[in-house]
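TA notes. Do not distribute before section.
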Amino acid sequence: MFKAILIEKDDSGYRASVTDIAEEQLPEGDVTVEVAYSTVNYKDALAITGKAPVVRKFPMVPGIDLAGTVSQSDHPGIAVGETVLLNGWGVGETHWGGLSQKARLKGEWLIPLPAQFTPRQAMAIGTAGYTAMLCILALERHGVTPDQGDILVTGAAGGVGSVAVTLLSKLGYRVVAVTGREEESDYVTGLGAAEILNRSEFDSPGKPLGKERWAGAVDVVGSHVLANVCATTKYRGVVTACGLAGGMDFPTTVAPFILRGVTLAGVDSVMCPRKYRLEAWQRLAKDLNIAKLGTIANEIGLSDAIPFATDLLAGRIRGRVIVNVNR
């Protein structure tokens, strides 16, 4: 038997609880992992609370991230005893995920843990940090360099934003951070932001075009925030979009794209091909200031993840939340 958070939906309603599960109940897969750490991401919070239809089948173990040690493998590329990590691939939505002491998965979803990170550090980064790195790689592929001007990061006190600010500042970019929480200004500045802007400047309907201000941006909010970011991006600038914390709508015009040549680059972390995952984690190992992870991440136990989900959706959590599933 092992412990996991189990989400159930039946005539009694929708509920999540920490439950004892027999190993025989694990879903199909060719690799079994003894999980050491997982995380609580925005998507996990939606799944646990039922605030959005994230879970596609029941019962479900949430958790889009995990790091741990392989205890059984029928996959030719993965050995017993290997330390691995997983981000996305629909776990926690259509396949049991990482908020559990054991996970059975497809070996093709797993990548080796970079030697520079412990399992705990890898989960301090998690999907949020890996997504931040994918955004930075997209900016680089489109030719955005530090000498071209400021990079804007929205949701800067959250998981993706915290890691993005840290990475961009270390890479030599001047980072302008947007947050709706004034009390987190010192935190975001400590991560490397040169300037802090209040989200209120961006979350109302704006003009089709505004003053050119940023060479690039990392946006996790969507809706009016993303529209206003695009409208104020410099000529031939690049905006990466990876989140919807403010909504799925995108109330803008074509003006930034046809008059200023702005590029809007979508970034998906869930189904991202393996070679790009490996590139992102290799770059994280090279470019992330590991010392900053202690500032960015907080650790909780498995039973704490359920109440934390509500706090995360309410915007009361900063940075990353690591879950020690054996605590």
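Switch to the second chain here.
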Amino acid sequence: MTFESFFEAQSTLLWGTFIIALVMGAVVNKTNFCTMGAVSDVVNIGDMGRMRAWFLAIAVAMIGVALLESMGQVNPAASFPPYRASQLVWAENILGGLLFGVGMTLASGCGNKTLIRIGGGNLKSIFVLLIIAVIAYFMVNPFPGSDQTLMSVLFYDWIRPLAISFDTPQDLGALVAGENAGTLRLVIGLILGFALLMFVFKSAEFRSSFDNMLGGLVVGLAVLGAWYISSTVAVDVDGEVHTLSGYVQQWDFLAESEEGKPADSRPLSAQSFTFINPMGQTLGYASSGFSAALLTFGVMALLGVIAGSLLWSLVSRSFRIEWFVNFKDFLTHVIGAVLMGFGGVLAMGCTIGQGITGASTLAVGSFLTFGSIVLGSGLTMKVQYYKMVYEDEATLFKALITGLVDFKLLPEKLRKLEAI
């Protein structure tokens, strides 16, 4: 999609993103597609339905990206955030994923679910959104009058040196084939994607669940659609085609004036849905007085999901105002939001941003984050369950060790509490 005007191209990107996000928000609300709920169902009742829906979304996005990238219609290599960066920040992926998994369990849902709940009338999720937004913003932006960020103060000096640098991008295709990764990316993406589809549809119970199939399919297609529109929208300047981010980088040479220039070129790169950093972007956009220079893909995605969820809530008459039950409920959600804010930025994404969007690029860091989020969430649920059943006998340490034994990450002889 090539336009003669930068502003036409930018408008197409932003409104296209909003519409895709609106559809996704409505469908996610309607089908109860929930990544935390998927982990909860598996851990607590052994039900794989919503987990299969999550896997379906990953499979659809992965197969779609593999095919479209091979045709030159999607460009994950120049994405924002840089999923395929040659530097694998494995410690940040794992620590961030664990923190995010714990946080989303305490706060009753991941970043996407927080937006869905806001659209459904949940006032608790507004608090969660605001807390995540402040942390996410200052993780990447300096404090007023300073050049320091939360990332540089708390994490950078000790965790970034642990990163591993490759000579190639970190996706599976490039790590195996090096510079000749194109064909292998297609092959690996198709093999992994179809393997996931076989696992998903092997279940007769899943095949009979319209909502789970619809939720997984639409979320996967939404991620793919966002990849496509953000990769293909471009500007034609006298026969020379520029990406939106490339145009902004050469603004002084290509544009007639400074009017309308975006504050940063990176948010105009190829990308798809993720929701933690965009919460920080939305805070920056609002605090600037809604400056058009700070209106990004992420901001429109966030607004679109809320609008879609609200629309479905009104149509289905499921809109309900919900508030904190007590102070303990408030404190639990605050702690969860703090952990999600730190974890989501450290891991460079959430259950959607890394678990689907990042996984669709075959990036190793995305798979590490995905596993860490699931582990962090599942362990938190185990700890909560054991402490509820055994009460005073179940200290945090005992419940955690027992949870690790249940997940077969520690030997049975270390069990501290009887399995339930």
